[in-house]
Amino acid sequence: MTQILDGKKVAADLRESIKAFIQKKQISPHLVVFLTHSNPASSIYVKNKLTACAEVGMRTTLIEQPASSEAELTKLLASYATNKDVDGILIQLPLHQNIDTKYVLQQIPPEKDVDGLHPINLGKLVQADPSGFIPCTPLGICTLLDAYKIPIRGKHVVIIGRSITVGKPLALLLSQKGKDATVTLAHTATEHLEELCSSADIIVAAAGTPNLITPPMVKKTTTIIDVGINRVEGKIVGDVDPSVYQLCAAISPVPGGVGPMTIASLLQNTLKGYLAYH
Amino acid sequence: MTQILDGKKVAADLRESIKAFIQKKQISPHLVVFLTHSNPASSIYVKNKLTACAEVGMRTTLIEQPASSEAELTKLLASYATNKDVDGILIQLPLHQNIDTKYVLQQIPPEKDVDGLHPINLGKLVQADPSGFIPCTPLGICTLLDAYKIPIRGKHVVIIGRSITVGKPLALLLSQKGKDATVTLAHTATEHLEELCSSADIIVAAAGTPNLITPPMVKKTTTIIDVGINRVEGKIVGDVDPSVYQLCAAISPVPGGVGPMTIASLLQNTLKGYLAYH
Question: How far, in Å, CA of A45 to CA of B247, rounded?
Fold first, then answer.
């Protein structure tokens, strides 16, 4: 029987513990979200994030205003960047195609950068400096693996996809001392992907390619984390071929796996931002 | 016949081209080196760095003064950090055991951080933002592989050792789009290291363990980069067992491989620091 790594349940538990903490301490961290480039998926993500914040007792402000240049976005950002009542700032990606995303991410004060994408936070992740913010999806994946006590020390984790939101920070996080996984970062140019995956103890599929993970890549002992979000014939599917589900030891499914964990990790980061400066 | 990746020669060519550029432009970049914790190896490294700078026409200042607290070192650093005539600042590691190295590295202005260890430069490496400084040893290894046209795109590179000076930044660098290697970061906790290495196209040994790389880990097609610097019976040896030399396709030896490349890369970074702000 394949074990389902139930992100929905683990995320609900995490949200519950954050809610209890916030109530006990009688605090109300404040997250500001910028939605500057209209896109149906982004709107849904933002709505889910705001709802989750409200449910645990956090305050939110949504700045929904189109921006098509760095100057416009930086101007929108300015007053929130310096406002001491703002604990976290999140700029929903992707941005308008004319905007240099790296430049904009650098305009968020690192101590409010709850998405963990400012270079100083990514650099702290390289240094294993716990004072930084860890990007939400990698953080959520680690929490999920922890919750199910999946061993990672010394194990071979193959991550497919080298984005700065998932693949690269997850590779850094799992390689850290104390976690001690052996991590391979694979991507579109990787040769012999099938062979590589079949040697893995854990496969993290974050390529955004439906049916990328197929039966020959998987053993009975493999744990799979599906991070894909692909729209196929109006349905959301991950990167893992459905026939793989019954062949592996454990799987975090799409939907109901990493998605809810990412949002719960955002709450965790916002609370961390609040606590670091209060 | 095993090909020797002659770091001494490639580094000499690189230094020559930097020297020619500096002469042509009639400039003289200025590097300041802090040696605050006495240690025979550190003294030799610093001397080699200063000599290399002088030979290409760069100016150097050596601040050789013991510091056993963050406050002392930060104070030493202060006037050089703000001095516009200083293009690069390097704090020789390791520091005194009482000092938090991460804290001190953050006090170097990122635009003078020629060792590339400030979190903002490490973070830019995660983002593949070319405006940052890349740590000297990883940069030198890439230049050496390039010089010998060793293919890396799609190839499997196994790096052993997860330091912030070598293993982690090299993994990030080789994984970038355009370089496109498939990188595995291995370390002391890695299980089945022999099997993992035997599947590699390129092995980078940066563990600081003599004789770590043994014949069963190597194929006739393997390229090996030895980054180890170990003192054994008064001699400097790398991480690769000597019996491996004749079994692989190519090897960067110790000494005469990565060491000179690291120093040449420091010159490259110092010149980059100068050019970015003049």
Answer: 54
A191·B156 Cβ contact <8 A = yes
CATH 3.40.50.300 fits B27-111, yes or no: no
Distance CA A52, CA A266 (A): 9
Residue positions of A annotated with a catalytic role: 49, 92, 115
CATH topology of domain A25-109: Rossmann fold (3.40.50)
B49 catalytically annotated: yes
Contacts of A129 in chain B (CB under 8 A): 102, 119
Q: State what percent of residues in chain A have pLDDT above 70.
A: 100
ipTM of this predicted structure = 0.96
Q: What is the DSSP letter of A213?
A: B
Catalytic residue among B115, B201, B226, B239: B115
pLDDT for the residue B38: 86
- The string of DSSP letters for chain B reads -PEE--HHHHHHHHHHHHHHHHHHHT---EEEEEE-S--HHHHHHHHHHHHHHHHHT-EEEEEE----SHHHHHHHHHHHHH-TT--EEEEPSSPPTTS-HHHHHTTS-GGGBTT--SHHHHHHHHHT-TTSPPPHHHHHHHHHHHHTT---TT-EEEEE---TTTHHHHHHHHHSTTT--EEEEE-TT-SSHHHHHHT-SEEEE-S--TT-B-GGG--TT-EEEE---EEETTEEE-SB-GGGTTTSSEEE-SSSSHHHHHHHHHHHHHHHHHHHT-
Residue of B nearest to A132 (CA): B119
Please identify every stretch of chain A with a pLDDT value under 50, giving residue numbers as ranges: none
Per-domain residue ranges of chain A: 25-109, 136-259
Asked if B225 and B6 touch (Cβ cutoff 8 Å), the reply is no
Q: What is the pLDDT of residue B277?
A: 83
Fold topology of A136-259: Rossmann fold (3.40.50)
pLDDT less than 50: residues of chain B:
none
Answer whether B27-111 and B136-259 agree in fold. Answer: yes
